[in-house]
């Protein structure tokens, strides 16, 4: 480790130690190191992976998932389909309060669902687009009304689309609600300092308070994986998410730490600007052959070995090869630099210059550098643009990018990994390439209308045949979720969705 790097790490440790003083007043303050700073803390508008980790303590959902991806009760205790699967009747848990003391009831569910559907900038609207509204049957019974059968709905309600916020607080705060969110979860919002910390404290009237052992949770964004681990080893943090694969040996050899892992639901890939403003007007954006050449330049297995020590799972689709919805007839293509050069020659772009935006953390930049080196052999001149995470999301939404190395946290239903990123009707903030293919839309809609996997698979195969040729996204790999924590922390169970659920967590 060089002298300047030691100085940076030491400085960060001092800062973390100062921040950790927030939690020293209570033995049950859990300090979690996040890989990025979340975006807005409003379930309707939010889109970041780390935001979902904070929401797991802040905002309960209508339903949740178990460790094996089964759907389990949370704010709703029972549900049943009616009206030819165009109605979902949900029985709500009695005695639940929002963190402002307001009662949680069917009217609140109606408000929240309709807020997801109508709020400007909503990132939930497309996730539950088949829902036209909600009907209050009685205080503890609500019916979601659908325009057509929608198989992924329950899975969507296990995430931000199912999170319930206080109608009173949301109406009072308006567009500023995300700066002081009020939900029905086990911890209430206390403060946020951008790029520094988010502080939550236990909500005394939580409906399932016997499972909550912590008094306070402090989330600390520390993008650098090495510094994040150093803070954990020094005692400045109690837990970190997304340990770098290269650091796994350090964790395993440290008797003060323990490791938890699970294969996630998401993916990481290169999103390419096809029609989002002036910056799409490049050979890469306008000619699929150039995108195909870039894919053929990449050896996914080698990328996994170099950056992730072979821990992750290479992939070329929106679900992993181990997923039952993976289209086996369209496997990962082998690297073929000669064919890539031929495609570039046919596209009259033998040496395309491409700006690849990547989040400015060591792991993402290493991925970008490996891709840069591999693609150079085919004729690509890739320039890496290191960008702060939240800023990269904003630039992508505006179309101020050519190619963007970015991941998606994943959903239990395959629709949640594909629809919002390639559908013509998807939010522009998620379909940042502005890809639109009417055949793809038709197949995605058909897949949403049936629950049986055997009936959905042919539709997803048709989607894959189009998107793997058009390549609005070049899928690269599916991550293993890696967590490290002090041995003093007990009760943690990793879930495939990556959320850190506070129920049962305790510092001994």
Q: Can you give me a brief rundown of this structure?
A:
This protein has helices spanning 3-20, 49-58, 106-118, 153-156, 167-173, 225-234, 248-253, 283-286, 288-297, 300-308, 337-346, 362-376, 389-398, 415-422, 438-448, 453-470; strands at residues 29-34, 63-65, 71-73, 76-82, 87-92, 131-138, 141-146, 187-193, 197-202, 216-221, 239-241, 257-263, 267-272, 313-314, 353-359, 381-387, 403-408, 473-478, 480-486, 489-490, 506-507. The protein is an alpha+beta fold.
Task: Give me some keywords for this one.
6-stranded mixed sheet, 7-stranded mixed sheet, single chain, Dipeptide-binding Protein, domain 3, globular, 32% helix, Dipeptide-binding Protein, domain 1, D-Maltodextrin-Binding Protein, domain 2, 22% strand, 508 residues, alpha+beta, 21 strands
User: Count of helices?
Assistant: 16
CATH class of the largest domain: Alpha Beta
The dominant shape is globular
CATH topology of the largest domain: Dipeptide-binding Protein, domain 3
- Structural class, by secondary structure, is alpha+beta
Distance between the termini: 33 Å
Average of the residue pLDDT scores: 93
Question: What secondary-structure arrangement, pairings included, does this model have?
Answer:
Blueprint: H1 3-20, E1 29-34, H2 49-58, E2 63-65, E3 71-73, E4 76-82, E5 87-92, H3 106-118, E6 131-138, E7 141-146, H4 153-156, H5 167-173, E8 187-193, E9 197-202, E10 216-221, H6 225-234, E11 239-241, H7 248-253, E12 257-263, E13 267-272, H8 283-286, H9 288-297, H10 300-308, E14 313-314, H11 337-346, E15 353-359, H12 362-376, E16 381-387, H13 389-398, E17 403-408, H14 415-422, H15 438-448, H16 453-470, E18 473-478, E19 480-486, E20 489-490, E21 506-507
Helix pairs in contact: 1-6, 9-11, 15-16
């Amino acid at each position: 480790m060089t002298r300047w790097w030691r100085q940076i790490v030491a400085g960060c440790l001092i800062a973390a130690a100062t921040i950790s003083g927030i939690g020293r007043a209570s033995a049950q303050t859990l300090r979690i190191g996040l890989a990025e700073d979340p975006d807005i803390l409003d379930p309707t508008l939010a889109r970041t992976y780390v935001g979902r980790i904070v929401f797991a303590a802040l905002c309960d959902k209508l339903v949740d998932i178990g460790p094996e991806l089964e759907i389990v009760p949370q704010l709703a205790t029972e549900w049943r389909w009616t009206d030819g699967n165009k109605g979902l009747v949900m029985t709500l848990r009695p005695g639940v309060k929002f963190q402002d003391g307001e009662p949680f009831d069917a009217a609140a569910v109606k408000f929240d669902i309709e807020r997801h559907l109508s709020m400007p900038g909503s990132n939930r609207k497309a996730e539950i687009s088949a829902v036209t509204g909600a009907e209050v049957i009685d205080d503890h019974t609500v019916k979601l009304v659908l325009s057509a059968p929608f198989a992924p709905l329950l899975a969507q309600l296990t995430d931000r689309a199912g999170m319930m916020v206080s109608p009173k607080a949301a109406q009072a705060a308006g567009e500023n609600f995300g700066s002081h969110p009020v939900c029905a979860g086990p911890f209430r919002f206390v403060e946020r300092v951008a790029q520094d910390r988010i502080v939550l404290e236990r909500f005394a009237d939580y409906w399932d308070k016997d499972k909550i052992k912590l008094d306070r949770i402090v989330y600390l964004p520390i993008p650098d994986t090495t510094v994040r681990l150093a803070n954990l080893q020094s005692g400045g943090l109690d837990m970190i998410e997304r340990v770098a694969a290269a650091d796994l040996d350090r964790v395993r050899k440290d008797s003060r730490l323990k490791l938890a892992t699970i294969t996630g639901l998401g993916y990481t890939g290169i999103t390419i600007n096809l029609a989002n403003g002036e910056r799409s007007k490049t050979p890469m954006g306008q000619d699929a052959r150039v995108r195909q050449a870039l894919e053929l330049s990449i050896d996914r297995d080698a990328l996994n070995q170099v950056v992730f020590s072979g821990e992750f799972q290479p992939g070329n689709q929106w679900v992993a090869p181990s997923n039952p919805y993976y289209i086996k007839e369209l496997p990962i293509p082998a690297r073929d630099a000669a064919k890539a050069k031929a495609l570039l020659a046919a596209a009259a772009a033998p040496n395309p210059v491409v700006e690849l935006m990547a989040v400015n953390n060591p792991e993402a930049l290493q991925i970008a550098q490996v891709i840069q080196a591999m693609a150079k052999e085919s004729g690509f001149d890739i320039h890496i643009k290191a960008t702060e995470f939240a800023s990269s999301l904003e630039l992508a939404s505006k179309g101020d990018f050519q190619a963007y190395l970015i991941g998606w946290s994943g959903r239990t239903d395959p629709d949640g990994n594909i629809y919002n990123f390639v559908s013509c009707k998807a939010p522009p903030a998620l379909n940042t390439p502005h890809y639109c293919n009417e055949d793809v839309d038709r197949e995605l809609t058909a897949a949403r209308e049936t629950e049986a996997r055997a009936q959905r698979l042919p539709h997803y195969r048709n989607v894959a045949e189009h998107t793997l040729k058009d390549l609005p996204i070049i899928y690269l790999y599916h991550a293993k979720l890696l967590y490290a924590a002090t041995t003093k922390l007990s009760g943690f169970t990793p879930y495939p969705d990556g959320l850190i659920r506070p129920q049962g967590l305790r510092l001994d």
